[in-house]
């Protein structure tokens, strides 16, 4: 055993920032990797502790982000849905299409969070979002909306997406100019692709002679 890589129970507890009793209990349960010397003393490898701490940090961040996203997203969606009744285009939709619009709004929120979290590399999320854009066009046309009103409907939800992402960024404490600027750029690219897919899906009328 290379002594330079291994530390004792007290040193490991100090390294992690917990009481030695907690460290001993975690080691006994196998939650933290350790070995025993021939004399029965616990030894912990420094790099394994660092890996464990990093994994714990990622897990905590992911859990906190999920809770934050769900809480803020649901709150923002309820507020948005409360304002829909005043929209002229919304009054033209039947109950089934209203529910579909609200479902698409929630799904777009999930996709845009995936896309921004991947720093714009989640092509699958982007392609699914484009399909939602095409669905928006079909729903509007089926219900007798003009292309302009269908675009207005999408822009209404796009504002909800931007505001929700901003709220989440503020709540997470990562709302500095660089962070928010990058997130805003990615969100803009994402929502532009949805809008372009919507417009491109609209059938063009043949030119009149």
Map the helices and strands.
Layout: E1 6-8, H1 9-16, H2 20-29, E2 35-36, E3 42-45, H3 46-83, H4 88-91, H5 95-117, H6 123-142, H7 147-172, H8 177-201
Antiparallel strand pairs: 1-3, 2-3
Helix pairs in contact: 1-2, 3-5, 3-7, 5-6, 5-7, 6-7, 6-8, 7-8
Describe this structure in words.
By secondary structure, this protein is mainly alpha-helical. The protein folds into two domains: 6-52, Multidrug-efflux Transporter Regulator, Chain: A, Domain 2, CATH 1.10.1660; 87-201. The chain is built from eight helices and three strands; from the N terminus they run E-H-H-E-E-H-H-H-H-H-H. It has a three-stranded antiparallel sheet.
User: What's the number of helices?
Assistant: 8
Segments where pLDDT lies below 50 for 5+ residues? 60-64
Q: What sort of overall outline do the alpha carbons produce when their principal axes are compared? A: rod-shaped
Q: How much strand?
A: under 5%
How many structural domains are formed by the residues? 2
Structural class: mainly alpha
In terms of quaternary structure, the protein is single chain
């Amino acid at each position: 055993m290379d002594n330079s890589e291994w530390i004792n129970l007290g040193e490991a507890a100090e390294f992690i920032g917990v009481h030695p009793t907690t460290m001993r209990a975690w080691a006994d349960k196998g939650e933290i990797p350790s070995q025993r010397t021939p004399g029965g003393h616990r030894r912990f490898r420094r790099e394994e502790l660092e890996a464990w701490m990093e994994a714990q940090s990622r897990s905590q961040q992911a859990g906190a982000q999920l809770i934050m996203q769900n809480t803020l997203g649901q709150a923002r969606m309820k507020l948005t849905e409360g304002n829909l009744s005043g929209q002229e285009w919304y009054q033209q939709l039947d109950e089934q299409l209203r529910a579909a619009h609200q479902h698409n709004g929630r799904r777009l929120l999930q996709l845009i969070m995936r896309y921004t979290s991947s720093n714009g590399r989640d092509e699958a999320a982007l392609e699914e979002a484009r399909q939602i854009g095409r669905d928006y066009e079909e729903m509007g046309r089926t219900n007798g909306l003009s292309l302009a009103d269908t675009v207005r409907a999408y822009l209404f939800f796009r504002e909800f997406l931007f505001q929700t992402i901003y709220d989440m960024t503020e709540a997470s404490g990562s709302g500095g100019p660089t962070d928010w600027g990058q997130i805003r750029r990615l969100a803009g690219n994402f929502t532009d692709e949805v809008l372009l897919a919507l417009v491109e899906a609209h059938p063009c009328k043949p030119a009149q002679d």
